[in-house]
């Protein structure tokens, strides 16, 4: 990490983790890290006591990682088998080449013997005997040469057969596993009875603010400097809200008075929705999740767009709602399920100027 990230040691397994690898996205200081290390368990050791939703992205990621692990193991097993067979074949070819070399040496030795015998000075009295012996020796030598030639032809045929024969490799994929260890990190405690089957857009209100308020807010936003993101630009106020690809400043900026009139009105809606969904909150005087963060997305033309994403960051309160106010030209927002098997759940929302729609967490 180049010194840009804290290294944390698991209390149980003593494994060292970079902050980012452990999924800790918050900005940590030394005091926080020292306090955290007294009880911190890494993603391998921590076991969440709550059942993870079936459609959670980590399930898909786990299956992807599992498939990659099995594929890599299978490829490695096949590669090892091929390497072993190649090594055996190379040793066999080397052995045959050594045998051929030895036979060639024998042939050369025999040829040298023939030359030496031809060059000998034979006494005339022993010519007949010598010639007879030489003829017998020559016949024996010819027979040995023929035998060696036959052996050499057999070896060459065996080498040719080995070169043309198919290579058979038997490998077995590693056994599969029905589950992998998983972990869950959350900055907010899980909520019992939370409904995860809600629709994407719960409420739509046209003309949520009047034209005068819209003009005032638009004029204020036009005076600000936005940070470019993928397909649009952004400006953030209030509590820090980080997400994949975010370009807004890490420094928290107070929600300006020009937007207070809007956030106060939305906070009232938030309270109504919360009390309606959780009636016991009124009975036990439980406060609703207050609106404390504003993210302004600016689109400058037909080429601007909002990439596909999920507002499921841990920093968002699990019992809160997400409100969107549209200012300017009319646009359409498309919602699609993460699972391709649930294509019928896709929907669209048409957002007119000064309208508001509410999304579930």
Estimate the global geometry from the Cα principal axes.
rod-shaped
N→C terminal distance: 33 Å
User: What percent of residues are in strands?
Assistant: 5-15%
Query: Helix coverage percent of residues?
Result: 40-55%
Structural class: alpha+beta
Radius of gyration: 41 Å
Average pLDDT metric: 81
Order of helix and strand elements from N to C terminus? EEHHHEHEEHHEEEEE
Biggest beta sheet attributes: 3 strands, antiparallel
Task: Give your account of this protein's structure.
This protein has 361 residues and is α+β, with helices and mostly antiparallel strands. Helices cover 40% and strands 14% of the residues. The strands form 4 sheets. The chain has a 3-stranded antiparallel beta sheet with strand order 3-10-7, covered by helices on one side. A 3-stranded antiparallel beta sheet has the order 4-5-6, with no helix packed on it. Strands 1-2 form a two-stranded antiparallel sheet. Residues 165-194 have low confidence and may be disordered.
Features of the shown structure:
rod-shaped, 10 strands, 3-stranded antiparallel beta sheet, 6 helices
Question: Short description, anyone?
Answer:
The protein is of the alpha+beta class and 361 residues long. The chain has helices spanning 30-37, 57-119, 127-164, 211-222, 257-277, 280-283, and strands at residues 7-9, 16-18, 201-205, 227-229, 232-238, 293-298, 321-326, 331-335, 347-351, 355-360.
Secondary structure layout:
Blueprint: E1 7-9, E2 16-18, H1 30-37, H2 57-119, H3 127-164, E3 201-205, H4 211-222, E4 227-229, E5 232-238, H5 257-277, H6 280-283, E6 293-298, E7 321-326, E8 331-335, E9 347-351, E10 355-360
Antiparallel strand pairs: 1-2, 3-10, 4-5, 5-6, 7-10, 8-9
Helix pairs in contact: 2-3
